[in-house]
Amino acid sequence: MALVQIENVSKIYRTGEIEIAALSNISLSIEKSAFVSFVGPSGSGKTTMLNMIGCLDKPSSGRILVDGQQVDKFNRQKRAAFRGDVIGFIFQSFNLFPVLTAYENIEYPLVMIKNEPAQKREEMILTVLDSVGMLDQKDKFPDQLSGGQKQRIAVARALITQPKLVMADEPTANLDKTSSINVIRLMREMKDKFGTTFIFSTHDPRIMEEAEITHTLVDGKLS
Fold it and tell me: What is the pLDDT of residue 202?
């Protein structure tokens, strides 16, 4: 069974009497442990697609199944619980808490979502910090880290709950070339090590080259 199954999905945004079709009758499937990118010009529907799969929004029509669950039928509370159990997120602006250390940023979802005991949290955090090569930076605050280091912490935070799926919206947009390449390679390593599926929206040709599957969106349609 595919990890993600999208069936005839459309998303219409309405502003007064104006309708904007962000996605139009999209159907596709994504397998477990895949490395998939959605590409296309700005406004093509990439972020909308990630929001649908990531249970941050619901389609206007069609069905979305993630890990065998029809998530478009979930209410807001159930979507939030499902995201905490199954999905991790990586953002182009990192979205780290500036008042928390790297260690504490990674710890946050274990406290707020998983409610793991302190000893188990420590073991999990040190393991994932080591995996992303940031163990020696664990006590630093975000403003003491480079862009590439911040994104490594963001990857670690996304993986700490052991999700089956990680959504990454333009994850290299704010990184220089070297940092971008390093972060992409890191995510490939994490995919191979943990069997996590990574889904990206991107303009970055380096991610397009690394992706196993690329879907191109133009005006809300697959092309």
Answer: 85
